[in-house]
Design brief:
Helices cover 0% and strands 55% of the residues. By secondary structure, it is mainly β.
Length: 117
């Protein structure tokens, strides 16, 4: 059974940094892409960043460009999201997402990030 477990959320002051981790396990095939989404209160879930498992190419939403960095540790089966220069607008529940080449999708339970002074 595939599991995605996020960690690293918490309270951060504006301008601060946080690193989220998504540890995945139980997969039987290669993932096509692993991504981070977020959902703020009263808003729809939105994509933040993703990384291709084929060539490690990355994508960032405009809101994340220049501030967030996605990376992957193959040996630890973990994907990270380094978030710098955090703003109150970054406050949200952050979800890890993975998709097989077959199209089957998986979601983690989410981790709360609150940016506030």
């Amino acid at each position: 059974q595939v599991q995605l477990v996020e960690s690293g959320g918490g309270f951060v002051q504006p301008g601060g940094s946080a690193r989220l981790s998504c540890k995945y396990s139980g997969f039987t095939l290669d993932f096509y892409v692993i991504a981070w989404f977020r959902q703020a209160p009263g808003k729809e879930r939105e994509g933040v960043s993703c990384i291709s498992t084929r060539d490690d190419s990355t994508y960032y939403a405009d809101s994340a460009k220049g501030r967030f960095t996605i990376s992957r540790n193959y040996a630890r089966n973990t994907v990270y999201l380094q978030m710098d220069s955090l703003k109150p607008d970054d406050t949200a529940v952050y979800f890890c997402y993975a998709q097989y080449y077959t199209g089957v999708e998986y979601w983690g339970q989410g981790t709360q990030v609150t940016v506030s002074s």
